[in-house]
Amino acid sequence: MPPRRIVSLLPSATEIVCLLGATDALVGISHECDFPEAIRDRPVLTSARVLSTGSSRAIDAAVRDVVRDALSLYTVDQARLAALSPDVIVTQDLCEVCAVSLDDVRSAVARLAHREEVCIVSLTPTRLDDILDDIETVAAALDRSEHGRAARTALKTRIEHITHRASQAPLRPRVVSVEWLEPIMLGGLWMPELIERAGGLPVGVRTGEPAPTLTPEALKQLAPDVMLVKPCGFSLDRALAERDLITRTLQPALSPGGRLVVTDGNAFFNRPGPRIVESLEILAACVHPELFPDFAQKHAAALHPLDGSE
């Protein structure tokens, strides 16, 4: 059987496809797919209606305006998609802000001449195990089930190893992860589970539930010992561009002696794919630096602690 022609409209799905050894079969990607480096020359099939420039508050307002008008945040280049003639399209049905919606993909596929032959794989992970399940789901669609099982086992082994190391900690600090800066949103879905596996106590959130929005006063009531700031879609440098906002509205919520670390929410944490394990490593280094100096060194480029002098 010839390799299946794959289109991925989700950055995490692109990483899964590559993990499964199907990089050469990837014929199209979304405008947000940027990892691994080898896929950056593929045709880009999507664009965003909202620019990612401006402040966190401005971006949030622009997104809400588009959604209020009942518009999708993203568009699909249907002509280019048809020309690529994919056998498999991987998308998501979890967050209208994160990527092209399932309905948009179905609409685009309906216009393809060979639409009955296109397999649409929609991913909807809300927990850590869902992310691992999705690897096997994509693998099955690509006729690579054995690769999927092996990849899942390897990632699960790494996760359990980190969990065991973190369990040796005598204390479990109160931890919040910040998903958006203004308004303040906390990381939901799989983030509470990652915090627990890193040896922390997630506060203000529950595993599997969407990101809650808090006022600065409500955040302060949580009294976190550790705060991980990783705005969705923001690189570390982009997040630090709003350093003043972070120090003014987030830092005061820390308990006495608490730690605030800014990290890369675009490459890690908010991508439910293979690098969720690297995300757990980063989190472990922040929650228990005394137990994970190796991870702190490994991910030093993605970590920026802020103290009261900044």
TrEMBL record:
<dbReference type="Pfam" id="PF01497">
    <property type="entry name" value="Peripla_BP_2"/>
</dbReference>
<dbReference type="InterPro" id="IPR051030">
    <property type="entry name" value="Vitamin_B12-ABC_binding"/>
</dbReference>
<protein>
    <submittedName>
        <fullName>ABC transporter substrate-binding protein</fullName>
    </submittedName>
</protein>
<dbReference type="InterPro" id="IPR002491">
    <property type="entry name" value="ABC_transptr_periplasmic_BD"/>
</dbReference>
<feature type="domain" description="Fe/B12 periplasmic-binding">
    <location>
        <begin position="5"/>
        <end position="291"/>
    </location>
</feature>
